Amino acid sequence: MLEALRKKIQEIMPQVDGVIALRRVGKGTAPHLFLPGDDLSELALSPQFPLPTPVRIIQAKYPDKRFAVVVRGCDERQLVEMAKRRQIFLDKLTMIGVACTKEQAEYCRCEMPFPKQVDIGETVEGIPQTFLDDFLAKPREERLAFWKHAFAKCIKCYGCRNICPECFCKECVLEDNLWVTSGTVPPPFPMFHLIRAMHTVGKCVACGECERTCPADIPLTILYKLLKRDVETVFHYYAGADPNEPPLMDSTIFLADMDMLHPPRR
Amino acid sequence: MTPTHASEKPRIGVFVCYCGSNIAATVDVEKVAEYAATLPNVVFTQTNKYTCSDPGQEEIRKAIIEHKLNRVVIAACSPRMHEVTWRRLLQGTGLNPYLLQVANIREHVSWVHQDRGEATQKAKELVAAAVERVPLHEPLEPRQVKIAPSTLIVGGGIAGIQAALDIANAGYHVYLVEKQPSIGGNMAKLDKTFPTLDCAQCILAPKMVDAGRHENITLFSYSEVVSVEGHVGQFRVRIKRKPRYVKEDVCTGCGLCTQACVLKDRIPSEFEMGMGKRGAAYIPFPQAVPLKAIIDAEHCLLLTRGKCSMKCVKACGPGAIDFKQQEEYVEVEVGTIILATGFELYDMSALPQYGYGRYDNVLDGLQFERLCNASGPTEGRIVTKDGRVPESIAFLHCIGSRDENTNPYCSQLCCMHNLKLAHLAREKTHAKVYQFYIDIRAGGKGYEEFYKRVQHEGIHFIRGKGSEVIQDGDKLIVRAEDTLLGKVVEVPVDMVVLAIGMVPPKDIENVARIFNINRSRDGFFMEAHPKLRPAETNVEGVFLAGACQGPKDIPATVAHASAAAAQALSLMSRGQATIEPIIAEVIAEKCSACGECIVACPFKAIRMDEEARHAYVVSAMCKGCGTCVAACPSKSIKMAHFTDQQLIAEIEGILGRMSEYELA
Amino acid sequence: MSSPESNVQQPPYEPKIIGFLCNWCSYAGADLAGTSRLSYPPNIRIVRVQCSGRVSPELVLKAFHEGADGVIVLGCHIGDCHYIDGNHRTSKRIPMLRQLLAYAGIEPDRLRLEWVSAAEGERFATIVKEFTETVRELGPIKRVMVTG
Ligand SMILES: Cc1cc2nc3c(=O)[nH]c(=O)nc-3n(C[C@H](O)[C@H](O)[C@H](O)COP(=O)(O)OP(=O)(O)OC[C@H]3O[C@@H](n4cnc5c(N)ncnc54)[C@H](O)[C@@H]3O)c2cc1C
Ligand code: SF4
Ligand code: SF4
Ligand code: SF4
Ligand code: SF4
Ligand code: FES
Fold it and tell me: How far apart are CA B426 and CA B198, in angstroms?
């Protein structure tokens, strides 16, 4: 797969000013901007490290240049949601779509481990999100206890927010004393985490990066994925599917019948 | 919480109102005032018998001056009642009117709770909330905008024409935009008008001509508004002029091209409601304004197939025909807007049981008007499609009205027009005439009298809504349940006329979107208040005239149109309007340019500075709803007078005291 | 919460309810309930906003955090919003927040969204009665959240 990707990059390089991809650094991988003529031997593929944030930063710095980026399914969907919010300029970006492998998909518990256009790799099926139903099968008190326990471990490092490509705000409400009492760790349940969860609605593509980053192992994406599922089933809004669709929560789409959204009854 | 201008320590005065006994009967007003005196920053408290009365206001005025108050809390009735009064009072003392907070202890307390203890406690908390909030209030300055001395009128029916003439005669300029090739609207198609039976054209045509010739009216016929930007006083309007393929300034309206057109009398005429025919080159009707020919691009052989002998071009003396014409766009700036887009008939495809469009002799009211009209397709003879004089005619009421499956509302004038048409039928033929009705609604000056008169003209009234029309040879059978007899009747007739309900034009949704106005549940445009502001909309400077707001007969349409014109005129003659300063503002340094707010704003009032990468609010377009504020993830928008800080202070004020109560 | 050790007599639990009402329909509807002298429990404290579209999920969460046992958001019926479609946004924000509360183990019924027109004083009073009872049954917010 890496070989195929290398070839593809070589093919595209003459048409662009650089290619954003992952590169092997020591034992790990990191985002890298490959320039024309650069050695591609350290090119890497990984289920980790979202590339949209580097793309945003690079595009902001070189607004007139044209770049290509290697995208997994989650990268592509994030880029689309960010483009809707003017953080990415799709017209100056070429995407090289990579389908993740079965192992990678399992590692991420990814529901859709491929981009819309696959240039490299074989598409594999997504992982069913049955753990969400398992979670919802717990009675409410247990869910509450689960989160009280989980959030009590939060050290307020902002890692989840920092890694999330969709969290590009210049000033974050989570750092504003008006909304989240500052100076207390863990942050008082549940302002911090519920505000952040609301901010993922219609944006989060479930890349899982926040959760992987969290030093306290808080399973954040359970909340985000449940909300994502509602947004998909009730509003038929698939984050990252269509760059021309306005951001869901601000659009004029409305819930005609409030009973269309059923919170779990137990 | 710190006051916004930090230099000035808040000095709050709290005034608690007895409202006679309206509040005092359930709330211990003195206790509330005593309690208020213990709250932070409160330097003065007072109770008043009637805070809104002149003596009540005078006491507040004196207190503000004597005690150097810089914030005022009034605990009284709903702010929806007197907030404006008291703001004016503050202004009179030199205090900014927005440094006031009203606690509603009447509608939300004394009138709805009985227990004196509970009511007093709730009143205390609401006062405490206001005392927490008011130090955060900022002085706000109302904004002034200039009103350009011109009006856009959309729709050239009788409503649009009336409004245009009123405004033009007052010396202001009007741009009248009509989507059809001629103005006149539905009234132009009528033969006689109830209840006086004067001829529709005779009273309409002079007004059409006046509108066409007036020096203060620019008429854009065969045109549509495509976009509107700006706000009251300065709307920028983009108008699309569809090609007529005839130069308006050259055409003399002689009609020679219409005679010459190779498709002459081959295309159903819209004006004749399909009852008559026209050519591809045509003049909609003899009294059309502008009286100019038009070439119908959908049918013209040259325009559709690229080949034609072009007899029209040869026939035209002045050489007005121009097949190269293109769509044109015109931009105008106006201070006010009047919408007068009228109505259409209900789309009968949902009611196939009446055979409309299927049986030759099932007509709608407007088609029958054309049959009666001396300049109509039959020169005023009422005849069936195959030329027979009908021996019997049935008029069916309430088709596509007053029915949960179509339109629940009453179209208001179909009863009257059916009576009128029945009268015309009796006058012009010896036909037996039936009316199938649910009940007759003849509310209007001279209407009941007209109904009485028609009753004596030998017309058979069958009380029951026609449910079905069946073709049986030459005859049409009308089926209905006669509710007086309690049985189903079947009446064979030669012609059926349906009083089809009035509905908004098909493109109304688009028009509503362009002008940012609401529609009521019936689909027509929504007025600002159903009783007190029937010609205004929720968008300042945009008014409604005629049937676009709901079914109306001509007298009501004209009155409504003149009301809209008067509203527009009063704005323009003032030359300036004041806009509430309660608007949103983007805090540029915090903004990440994500544009969520732009999508969220119902008024398209937010733009993006792409260079500087931040959003900004076009203040004159902002209505102050605060939707953007809630949308912004990083809370980079500040909503004047409803800031997050202010609302949170209010919540803290309430909940802080509630827990005190719990502990007490 | 009452601890077994302390002998301090706790007053019976009275739910604290914050109502965010839009100025044009719902606040007017609440006023009408007053003008019509309809009675309802005194637990609700009304905070006036211009449009229900102003009510951000953050504000609702903040009200809970400050100790509200229930929060009710009332706006104009869909199609009647004074600001055309400000309430279309509300119709997604508040129900989605209810979902989130439920997922987090907090009773979603502590938060309610309804449309109340200026003419629906009676409906306002009924909803407030119902909601007060619901929140009374759910008990203090302190059971599920850290407040203050
Ligand atoms: C069968 C019948 C008989 C009637 N008889 C009588 C009677 O005897 N007496 C009586 O008092 N009333 C009668 N009426 C009612 C009368 O027709 C209406 O009161 C009157 O036409 C309303 O005028 P208007 O200008 O509001 O609307 P309309 O007459 O509908 O005019 C609207 C105009 O706006 C134009 N328009 C629409 N949309 C746009 C757009 N987007 N852009 C530009 N232009 C647009 C249309 O082309 C039209 O010219 C009758 C109605 C019917 C159906
Ligand atoms: S949590 Fe919310 S405010 Fe903070 S960066 Fe993410 S989206 Fe922005
Ligand atoms: S899973 Fe986490 S990091 Fe990924 S998009 Fe969603 S919130 Fe952001
Ligand atoms: S307050 Fe309302 S009208 Fe004003 S900019 Fe924000 S969303 Fe638009
Ligand atoms: S929503 Fe907030 S951050 Fe985004 S563009 Fe608007 S003001 Fe800026
Ligand atoms: S004004 Fe009532 S919901 Fe918008």
Answer: 17
For residue C144, pLDDT over 50 is answered with yes
Cis status of the peptide bond prior to A50, with omega within 30 of 0 = no
Q: pLDDT tier at C9 (50, 70, 90 boundaries)?
A: low
For residue B27, give the amino acid letter: V
Q: Is the CB of A51 under 6 A from ligand 3?
A: no
d(CA C53, CA C88): 8
d(C-alpha B99, C-alpha B87), whole Å: 8
Query: Residues enclosing ligand 1, CB less than 6 A?
Result: B 154-160, 177-180, 185-187, 190, 193-194, 224, 340-343, 365-366, 369, 413, 417, 420, 505, 507, 511, 546-547, 552-555, 557
φ, ψ dihedrals at B345, nearest 5°: -85, 150
CA-nearest of B441, B499, B435 to B462 is B435
Given an 8 Å threshold on Cβ–Cβ distance, is A170 in contact with B591? yes
B634 Cα nearest atom in ligand 2: 3
The confidence score (pLDDT) of residue C8 equals 54
The whole-angstrom distance between residue B62's C-alpha and the CA centroid of its chain comes to 45
Out of A142, A193, A195, name the one closest to residue C58 (CB): A195
- Residue B422 structure tokens: 């029945």
How far is ligand 5, taken at its centre, from the CA of residue B235, in Å? 26
* Ligand 3 binding pocket mutation candidate from A169, A207, A226, A231 (most atoms within 8 A of CB): A207
Chain B residue numbers touching C46 (CB-CB < 8 A): 104, 108
What pLDDT sits at residue A190? 83
Residue A134, by phi and psi: left (phi above 0), alpha (psi -120 to 50) or beta? alpha
What whole-number distance in Å separates Cα of residue B91 and Cα of residue B114? 36
Is B624 in contact with C45 (Cβ distance < 8 A)?
no
Total residue length of chain A:
266
Comparing CA positions, the residue from B551, B629, B554 lying closest to residue B590 is B629
User: pLDDT value at position B657?
Assistant: 63
B648 C-alpha vs ligand 2 centroid, how far in Å?
Answer: 20
Query: First-to-last CA distance in chain A?
Result: 47
- Cis peptide bond prior to B290, omega within 30° of 0: yes
3-state secondary structure of B658: helix
Contact between residue B342 and residue B558 where contact means Cβ atoms under 8 Å apart: no
B602–C31 C-beta distance less than 8 A:
no
Residues in chain B with pLDDT values less than 70: 1-7, 657-664
Cα distance from N-terminal residue to C-terminal residue, chain C: 14
- Name the residue among C22, C23, A253, C84 with its Cα closest to residue B602: C84
Instruction: Say if residues B543 and B560 touch (Cβ distance below 8 Å).
Output: no
Q: Which helix (DSSP H) or strand (DSSP E) does residue C58 occupy?
A: helix C57-65
- Please, what is the angle between helix A220-235 and helix C86-103, to 10°? 140
Phi and psi at residue B514, in whole multiples of 5°?
-60, -40
Q: What is the ipTM of this complex?
A: 0.95
A188 and C87 within 8 Å at the Cβ level: the answer is no
Closest CA to ligand 2's atom 3: A172
Task: Provide residues with CB under 6 Å of ligand 4.
Answer: B 583-584, 600-601, 603, 605-606, 617, 622-628
How many A from CA of B561 to the centre of ligand 1?
12
Alpha-carbon distance values, B458 to A2, B430, B450, C76 (Å): 94, 10, 14, 51
